[in-house]
Amino acid sequence: MNKTKPELRYKAQPLYRSLAPSLPIIPNSFSTETKEAVNRLRDQMRYYAVVEIRSQRFLITKNDLVITHRLRDVNVGDELRLNRVLELGSKDFTIKGQPLVLEAFYNIKATVIEQPKGPLITIIKKKRRNRHKKHVTHKQTYTVLRISEVEVNKLE
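Given the sequence above, the corresponding C-alpha cells read:
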C-alpha cells in the first residue's frame, strides 16, 4: 500500500494581511472637493467624532469623559493623541472614513484622568453532578480619559 499525500486544492492563506507602511500625507495632494468639504466642516461651531479605542467605538465631543478598558502603557496625566477616527462631523456636515478618516483632517487629544477599579465581581463555576462549586472574584480595571481637544484642521 503506497499512500501519497493528496493534492492541495486551495492555496494556504496567511492569518494576517501585511499592510504597506503609511506614507506622510502632503496637504497639497487632496482634491479641491475634499478641501472644500473639510473647510466647510471646519466653519461649524462644535464637532463630534466616532473614535475606536481598544476595539470599542465611542462618540465623543470636547470635554467628554470616556471610560475604557485598562490601557496598560499610560499613566495618570499622560496626553494621548487619538488617531483611529471612523467619523468626524458637526450638526450639518459629516466626513466618514473608509475605514478611517485621514489624520491630516483632524487633531484629537485626550488626557488620562484616573485608572480606577470596578466593583468586586463574583463568578460561580460549577460542574454538574459532582458537587463541585468554585467562586472566582475579581475587579476590572478601567481608564478614564478626558477629551481635551477636538479640532478640524484647515486645508489650503
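The chain has a mean pLDDT of 86. Try to locate this feature in the C-alpha cell string yourself.
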